Amino acid sequence: MDIPSGVIPAIRKMKDFDHVLKTSHETVIFLETRLDQLKSLVEYTKRSNKQALVHFDLIQGLKADEYGMEFLIREVKPDGILSTRGNIISLAKKHHLLSIQRLFLIDSSALEHNLQLIKRLKPDCIEVLPGIIPSMIQEIHAETKLPVIAGGLIKEESDIEQAIKAGAVAVTTSNPKLWN
Fold this sequence. Notes:
With 180 residues, this protein is of the alpha/beta class. The protein has one domain (6-178): TIM Barrel (Alpha-Beta Barrel), CATH 3.20.20.70. Helix content is 41%, strand content 22%. The protein is built from seven helices and eight strands. An eight-stranded parallel beta barrel has the order 1-2-3-4-5-6-7-8, surrounded by six helices. The longest helix has 14 residues, at 108-121. The protein is globular. The model has no long low-confidence stretch (mean pLDDT 95). This is Glycerol uptake operon antiterminator regulatory protein.
């Protein structure tokens, strides 16, 4: 399981899928898609020699339980998952999938709760949203010693540069203009 690096395209709209397959990016994240489309999307992604990551919480028709994870592993066969849910991160680790814990920086209480959850679950990586707060990227990495991916509200090249400079190993964005 390789931890992704650099810019990671996050697909929200199917019109962006063909575009991302033609890029040199090694990893693709699927957001907000339907379960019946997911298997073929992952297959096409892998045929293009790219790593396919699925945001478990945003797949319509996929239940966040052990049966949902078993279905995802047996039928869809992604390389990894992203989730805000502790049970999904635990199941991904149990099944040897790359596990990325999504962490929303709402307030200091949410940060403290999520840091405790991360220390207990030990995901492979953390995605911090919004990813435009360099000091938080540094703090979360220092606290957890885990690779941090920045995502959310990434609108400019400078946002990517600042996140990487702050220690993020990668930056997720659904803005195709930033995939180059």
